[in-house]
Amino acid sequence: MPTEFQTIKFRPQKQTNDISLTIKLSGTNFNEITESNSNINEKYNSFSQTLLASYNQTHPIKEKTVTAKRLKNGWLSKELLVLVNRKHTLFHAAKNGTIPECIYKNYRNQLDKIINKEKRKYYEGKFKECKGDPKTHWKIIKQAINETPKERETINKLRINDIEYTDKKDIANKLNKYFADVGKNLADQMAPSPISFRNYLGAPLPNQFYFSPITSSDVESGINSLKNKNCDVENIPNRIYKLCAHIIAPPLANLFNQSINEGSYPDVLKIAKLTPIYKASGDRTLPSNYRPISILPTVGKIFEKVIYKQLTNYLNVNNILSPTQFGFREGHSTGDAVTSFLEKIYKNLHEKKTTIAVFIDLSKAFDTVPHDILSSKLSHYGIRNSALKWFKSYLSDRGHYLKIENCSSEINKVAFGVPQGSILGPILFLIYINDFSKCHDAISFNYADDKAIIKSGTNTETLYEATNSELNKIYNWLLASKLSLNAAKSVYMK
């Protein structure tokens, strides 16, 4: 069987390349950028172009031809491939009677031992690199046992409104627009609310959030918390940012502070790259059977990490978030939510009360958040004036493009939702739904957008009526908050 070859593009990531980059960046006068009279967009674009140009120069894109098998198996070195090919030669020689079969078998057995040793060495190195990251850990295990990964990117046909698209550019554009319009389409389908969302908020909090000046050490800490293996939209590995952290942290701190002072988030940091992932079930030609994986610029994530730390500190010090919310909060987990839920059930059983639990599922809740209502809720909780101006800028005019193989779509703007794949998105969503506990009188347990309520009593008929009453209150809150109930996935238990 002829060997299959494939040409791949790569960037050399050797120590000599890294040293060249640090030397080049160390000699760059970033003050020319940070001390100019330009606005934050112009300054950040100059910084980004300087960093990318330096990386392109010291880590240039190259091409090499490798076997398809070697591309799939990272442990298969050039030297090992020579030994494998030698085994194939001996196999055919033994089959034709040119050499005794025992020579082939002895060689094969010795090679198997070498391969197992190389595999073990390769995967041990991979496990050390992931440093306890469970998601990456399982990905490596699946690779080791040859489990086929979910199909990415390759979409040969897309069907929308009975029209089929087979051109890659058309598929990329149509699927990207589908993802961009999800929030708007759901919002358009919702019935108007008879109640204002403000009715559930009560009096505004007297507390007020202010940004603290960002230091170089804040930025360096954010950089060093990045995962090594990830790359941003420019395909610069996070390890490169970590390598140069001491060099780029001071100019970035300067740019971040200007962004805060201007109340303007750099436009280029608002653009995400989407990769469509098949959900593993349903018609592959339907857009609804794909979910987008969003990749944002790494510098934006560094900036968000610094802001996230300041924002969560304010929320925690002032006890703003509901104690019934267990999602996306340090010191809280799904285990805590389940434990609290079961403790209440056991208490009711001990008191010989009947309990009804309703599990509420929301349709694409993160994608449907209206920015105007979120801004009003931020203001209610003390995020006002210049801080609110910055968050409004962070949320506005966001967009994304979608990439399938080597084909990129146009950029589509997103008018609803919190940014997917972002650091601030989840905490902003928690702020948005924080008043959920005020819309009903049931006991609730929340993990982000997953919600459960409990009602208990000794009279079953009265209990059903009381539960339905709570559900009506929750439905009204959902309407006021422009969130959609997923009735098909919402269930109740008695």
* Unreliable runs: none
- Supply the number of structural domains: 2
Main beta sheet strand tally, sense and closure:
5 strands, mixed
Mean pLDDT comes to: 89
The end-to-end span amounts to: 62 Å
Architecture overview:
- The protein is an alpha+beta fold and 494 residues long.
- The chain has two domains: 73-149, no CATH class; 163-493, no CATH class.
- The chain contains 17 helices and 13 strands.
- It has helices spanning 15-26, 31-34, 40-58, 68-72, 78-95, 101-130, 134-144, 168-189, 216-224, 238-243, 245-262, 298-317, 334-350, 371-380, 385-395, 424-432, 460-480, and strands at residues 5-10, 62-67, 158-160, 163-165, 271-278, 290-295, 354-360, 398-404, 407-408, 412-414, 443-447, 450-457, 491-493.
- The strands form four sheets. Strands 5, 6, 8, 9 and 10 form a five-stranded mixed sheet that branches. Strands 11-12-7-13 form a four-stranded antiparallel sheet, sandwiched between helices. The protein has a two-stranded antiparallel sheet with strand order 1-2.
- α9 crosses α11 (245-262).
- It is globular, with a radius of gyration of 28 Å.
- The protein starts with a strand and ends with a strand.
- The mean pLDDT is 89.
Please describe the structure with a list of short key phrases separated by commas or semicolons:
single chain, 494 residues, alpha+beta, 2 domains, 5-stranded mixed beta sheet, 4-stranded antiparallel beta sheet, 17 helices
